[in-house]
Design a protein that fits this description.
Helix content is 64%, strand content 11%. With 359 residues, it is an alpha+beta fold. It folds into 2 domains: 138 residues, no CATH class; 167 residues, Heat Shock Protein 90, CATH 3.30.565. The protein has a 5-stranded mixed beta sheet with strand order 2-4-5-7-6, covered by helices on one side. Strands 1-3 form a two-stranded antiparallel ribbon. It is elongated and about 120 Å long.
């Protein structure tokens, strides 16, 4: 909502108030000079008529736009005092300096020139400059409103992009993961029915966590960790003793409900399983480490698998997460995939703590 600055508008002032403002300007600079009073008052009448003409023309042509009107005597008195002071200084300076510039002219001529200069200053200071200042202020307010509207539009587009990226990620994860799990269950039914039954139980638990998270615009740290655990439980049944898992979190209850976008952690875990465990014949250890500070949530997923040299890269899932982070947080969030000391890969996710998480 635009808040307009109110300025005294001579076109809206009553005649007594105009008299209150203009009479001191006409009379104060010449007090103490009785010999000049009659001639100067004649000039004052002429200049007053000119001012009336200016005000009338302004009322007809310049005040057509809807502007706030000041009707407070305190505000009018304040501006009147300012104008009296300015006029006193300027007219007195003109009275004593003009004879130096016009030494051969009469006092009446000097008075006329002084009054013309004085009222020109009055019109410029009291009528024109406030209008220009008000127009500049209103223009800045309108520009600010346009900038805010543009920022809201960009934020809305970024949220839409983030949701689109999430749906793309769902389409990439669900078929691949479900195909692998169901294929493993089918192969185990004949010779390891107990393991197949356990895998189906973990799959149900995984879907119980995954489906609401995938369809929601927001999740929690606890929900994302539970989803990752369900995924890793299924992976441990697939790979048996080859896969060991450690989750370091030590989160208090408030941190567990930390709000975060859904499906940011799972692609990192899937990347560790796909490139760290599936491609390595021997045992692989996957570790999830969670650190929450007052400003940043940091989650790292590391494995001691083959690493970058023997694998094909970090996968589409990581690239998708990176694009979603850019849409949601711009440069305030990141996901980095790097070689791990001792072999393997470490993926690190950093997102800022939102204000509602700080409360």
């Amino acid at each position: 909502m635009t808040h307009e600055v109110s300025f005294p508008n001579p076109a809206k002032l009553s005649l007594p108030r105009r008299f209150l403002l203009t009479t001191p300007i006409l009379t104060i600079p010449w007090l103490g000079k009785p010999l000049l009073l009659s001639s100067l008052m004649s000039v004052a009448i002429v200049v007053g008529l000119l001012m009336w003409l200016v005000v009338t023309l302004f009322r007809r042509f310049g005040a057509a736009r809807n502007r706030p009107v000041v009707r407070s005597w305190a505000r009018i008195t304040h501006f009147g005092a300012v104008m009296v002071t300015v006029s006193l200084v300027c007219s007195s300076a003109a009275f004593y300096l003009l004879p130096l510039w016009m030494p051969d002219n009469s006092v009446i001529e000097l008075g006329i020139v002084t009054f013309v200069l004085l009222h020109a200053l009055f019109v410029a200071t009291f009528l024109i400059l406030p209008r220009l200042a008000q127009d500049a202020y209103l223009m800045s307010e309108q520009n600010a409103e346009r900038r805010n509207a543009e920022q809201l539009r960009v934020a809305s587009l970024e949220r839409s992009l983030a949701m689109s990226e999430l749906k793309t990620l769902q389409a990439q994860i669900e078929p691949h993961f479900l195909y692998n799990v169901l294929a493993n269950v089918q192969s185990m039914i004949a010779h390891a029915p107990t393991t197949a039954d356990a895998m189906l139980t973990h799959l149900i638990d995984y879907l119980k966590h995954a489906l609401p998270s995938m369809r929601a615009g927001e999740s929690t740290l606890r929900a994302e960790l539970d989803l990752a655990r369900s995924y890793l439980s299924i992976a441990q049944l697939r790979f048996g003793d080859r896969l060991s898992v450690t989750v370091n979190e030590n989160l208090h209850d408030d941190a567990a409900v930390f709000a975060m976008p859904p499906m940011l952690l799972l692609p990192l875990v899937e990347n560790a399983i796909k490139h760290g465990v599936e491609d390595k014949p021997g045992a692989v250890h996957v570790e999830i480490d969670v650190k929450l500070s007052s400003e940043t949530l940091t989650i790292s997923v590391s494995d001691d698998g083959l690493g970058f040299k023997q694998t094909s890269g970090s996968g589409i899932g990581i690239a998708n997460v990176r694009e979603r982070l850019t849409a949601l947080y711009r440069d305030r969030a990141s996901v980095n995939v790097a070689p791990r000391d001792g072999g393997g890969v470490i993926s690190t996710l950093c997102i800022p703590v939102a204000e509602k998480n700080k409360a």
